[in-house]
Every structure is written in structure tokens, then in C-alpha cells.
Amino acid sequence: MKPASFDYHRPQTVEDALGLLARFGETAKPIAGGQSLGPMLNMRLARPRHLVDLNDLVELDFVRVVDGVLELGAMTRHQRVATSAEVRRAHPLLAAAAATIGHYPIRQRGTLGGSLVHADPAAQMPLIAVLANARIVIGGVGGMREIAACDFFQSVMTVDLRAGEIVTSVRFPVLAPNAGWGFRLFSRRHGDFAMVAVAATLALADDGRVADLKVAVGGVASVPFRIDLDASVFAGATPTASWIEEISAHVAERIAPEDNALVPAEYRRELTEALVRDGIKDALRNTQVEAA
Amino acid sequence: MSDKRTITLTVNGTTREADVEPRRLLSDVLREDLGLTGTHVGCEHGVCGACTVLIDDKPARACLTYAVQMEGHEITTIEAVGEETLSPLQQALHEEHGLQCGFCTPGIVMTFEAFLREMPDPSEAQVRDVLSGNLCRCTGYQNIVVAVLKAAAVMREKRP
Ligand SMILES: Cc1cc2nc3c(=O)[nH]c(=O)nc-3n(C[C@H](O)[C@H](O)[C@H](O)COP(=O)(O)OP(=O)(O)OC[C@H]3O[C@@H](n4cnc5c(N)ncnc54)[C@H](O)[C@@H]3O)c2cc1C
Ligand code: FES
Ligand code: FES
């Protein structure tokens, strides 16, 4: 398995990278960690004539918190997202999810931007971006634009990115300090892409009733998505075990997973129900830890 | 467009030159151009871990890296580990029967040499999480886990 021939470019600035990508148009592809593109090149599922290496663009590898927004550069490696004290403080759910991506050596190379653009339907970073209402910052020779994560992901491995554009950073609203969170995934082998992944955040009011609940699911449709929870089901509820059962059944009803030979739709639905249940329990547990 | 070019690599502290096309995998350049056949190749798509080397001291798949990308970076391969005597990790793998055919072993050693530097006192669960990135068809993994934990203990003791 060897890639088809390509020409290699190693720009030193974002501006130069954008210039090269604009010049070569559809015949070029940026390479970040190479942990998804590498296999595709080696298997010749992708055959770009020009590879534009983003690895020298150190200005795209950063973590900062400004005005309640955690901003991460596109070239930030999964390992840094998983272990950075700043990310763990500002968005512990994002850090926890990043720690489950693939395996240790994969996380040393793979990047946040690459994961979002690769857009595997079961991938962790797209799921958290959608749940958290993150905004994707995109650069092109014509200038910058910003788009909501839920609009960025269009279909399986298809995102709203035009030839010549790159993702430069991602903005996550900081998770409210009183919010609990849960992240659960199931895969047959440790480190494989998830069959189903679930993320949840939960905030309680002072009286212990539910003030806010968000749940997102990956691996059950062409893109990860947030479940539009009917406020009447959760708002003001006391988070009892039966309430958690009700929410997870509700989510399982709202999805329409595809049926295939390896994973029957019914199995994916039951898995989703179980993961939502466990994810909300985790969220509840760590709100209480925060509260205590 | 894909002409060969001369690239300069730093491998195990030595500067080496190779004439390669940009599409050449780092794993192939190490093995075929530089004669460093300790880095093994199993799957060429990142799954098996056999080709794991260190890039700037961090473990990475040599099969998902193009050699041309590595100019200016430091590569460490299994040939640099235990040159005189076995490293504590290699010694523990030997004592605990952590290998049989040895095909997977270079990748496992490189992964854990780096991991144990970052995490000198790992839990068994952490070792198992990291080991998930390396396939071994012989050992059943149990003895590798035992060996890594033993190596960690030995290395901690040796520290001042
Ligand atoms: C064995 C193995 C297991 C894995 N398991 C998981 C898993 O469980 N979960 C998971 O989410 N992922 C998994 N991955 C994939 C990994 O997370 C990748 O790191 C990620 O999907 C892509 O990131 P990258 O930086 O490696 O991007 P690359 O592979 O370099 O690029 C991926 C795509 O994004 C484009 N691209 C990259 N950066 C940019 C940018 N800034 N702007 C525009 N386009 C860009 C490239 O052109 C390419 O199309 C696994 C990979 C391997 C090899
Ligand atoms: S050969 Fe590189 S991971 Fe299998
Ligand atoms: S010892 Fe044979 S593959 Fe691991």
C-alpha cells in the first residue's frame, strides 16, 4: 500500500499555505496529523497531486480562553486537548473525549482541525463541537469566516469547506462551572472508532431541579447531532432514576439508525439508550461533585 | 512532479541522507534506504503499531508519515534502544515472557519508552489503554502488561 505520486509543499505561514491551496485548487490537499489522510493516501482512496503540509504552522497550535470562549488552534494535537490544564478547566468534557481518540501514538499526531474536517460520523471531536455549539473558524485567500458546528457537518466525511480553505481554529463556549457532563462510547475493541458515542451536559438549579440538559449522539446518522429535547420532558424535573430512563428512551425514539449487516438498527438504538442513560448519570454525578 | 529529492534526516542522533520521492513512507525509508530494519511494518494504515518510532520523542506511526516531512525533526528507532545492555523495558519483556515471535516488539518498546517517560507510575488500566494501539498475535498481552509495570517500577527505583 503505497500512495500515488504527489508533490510536497511545506509552507511556513498560514498565508503561504492558503496561497498554495488557492493556486492548486481541487488538486491539492492539506495534511495535518496524517492519521486519517495517511491511510487514505496509502490505500489510494485519495490521490491529491499536491500535499500542503500544515505541520510547520505553529501559529495554529494554541489553547486560549478569552471572554468565556475556549479557542483551540486547528493544529492542536489530540494529546494536548486531552491533557492541557486549561482545556480541562474550561471544557472538561472536550478533554475527556479527546483522551479516547484512537490510541496513544495516534493522539500525539492527530489534530483537532483534521478530525473536524475528516468528519467521521462517529468521531469524538465533531460530536463535542455539535453538543457544545462550537464555532469553526475558516481561513481562505478571500478572508476569514465562521460557521456553527451544526452547519459545518453536512454528511459522511463532508463538511462546508471550499477548495483552498482551511480550518484555523475552533471556539467552544466555556462549560458553565455548575454544569455536569458525561461522555460515553461503545466500540468492540478499545480505541476503535465508536459504534455509538454520546455526550451530555446537565445543569441543576439551586433547588436541585434540572435547569438545562443537552444530549448529542454520534454514529447513528451521517453526522453527529444534538437531540432537540422537548422542554416539557426535562425542564424543572427532579433528576431521579426514572427521569433518566424517560430521557434515554426519548432519545432512542428520536434517532433513526441505519440497518446494516454488521450492526442492526435495533442494536444501535438499544446501545444509544444505554449510553445516554450512563452519560446522564455521569453528568449528574459530577454536577453533584461540583456542588459539594 | 514527483521527482526524487535529497532529504536530510536525523535518525538516532546521526544525520542521514536519502534520495526519495515525496510519497515514500518513513517506514520504507528507514528500512530500505537507511537499512534500519528494526522498525517493522504490518498494516500500513496506522492500526497495528508495528512501525511505531519516536518523532521528537513522541511515539508516531512511521507508516502514516512521509519521510520528506521529517526534515528538521529527530527520529528515534528501536536501534537506539538498549545498544549496550537491554533497557529496563526490554529486560522486563524478556524476563516476563512479553514476546514470542517478536514481530510486534519494536513498536511496543518505542511506544512505552515514551509513555513511561511521560507517566513513570502508570496504573494497569493506563498501560492497557496505551497497549491497545499495538497488535500482538502471540502473547495474549497479559505478559506485556506485567512487563511494562515491572519496567516502570525498576525505572522509578533507578531515579535519584
Ligand atoms: C488506528 C487509528 C485509530 C483511530 N481512531 C479514531 C477514533 O477512535 N476517533 C477519531 O475521532 N479518530 C480516530 N482516528 C483518526 C484520528 O483522530 C485523526 O487524527 C483525525 O481523524 C484526523 O486528524 P489529522 O490531524 O490526523 O488529519 P489528517 O489525516 O492530516 O487530515 C484529515 C483530513 O482533514 C483535512 N485537513 C486536516 N487539517 C485541516 C485543516 N486545518 N483545514 C482544512 N482541512 C484539513 C485533510 O486534507 C484531510 O482531508 C484514528 C486513526 C487511526 C490511524
Ligand atoms: S505498519 Fe504502521 S501501524 Fe501498522
Ligand atoms: S510476539 Fe509475536 S506478534 Fe507479538
UniProtKB/TrEMBL annotation, chain A:
Segments passing through the bilayer: none
Name of the protein this chain belongs to: FAD binding domain-containing protein
InterPro entries in alphabetical order: CO_DH_flav_C, CO_DH_flav_C_dom_sf, Diverse_Substr_Oxidored, FAD-bd_PCMH, FAD-bd_PCMH-like_sf, FAD-bd_PCMH_sub1, FAD-bd_PCMH_sub2, Mopterin_DH_FAD-bd
Keyword Flavoprotein included in the entry's annotation: yes
PROSITE patterns: FAD_PCMH (PS51387)
Domain FAD-binding PCMH-type span(s) in chain numbering: 1-177
Keywords: FAD, Flavoprotein, Oxidoreductase
Pfam families the UniProt entry points to: CO_deh_flav_C, FAD_binding_5
Keyword Cell membrane on entry: no
Top-level taxon: Bacteria
TrEMBL record, chain B:
One protein family per Pfam: Fer2_2
Keyword ATP-binding (UniProt): no
Listed InterPro entries: 2Fe-2S-bd (IPR002888), 2Fe-2S-bd_dom_sf (IPR036884), 2Fe-2S_ferredoxin-like_sf (IPR036010), 2Fe-2S_ferredoxin-type (IPR001041), 2Fe2S_fd_BS (IPR006058), Beta-grasp_dom_sf (IPR012675), Diverse_Oxidoreductases (IPR051452)
All copies of domain 2Fe-2S ferredoxin-type, residue ranges: 5-81
Keyword Iron: yes
Keyword entries, A-Z: 2Fe-2S, Iron, Iron-sulfur, Metal-binding, Oxidoreductase
Protein name per UniProt: (2Fe-2S)-binding protein
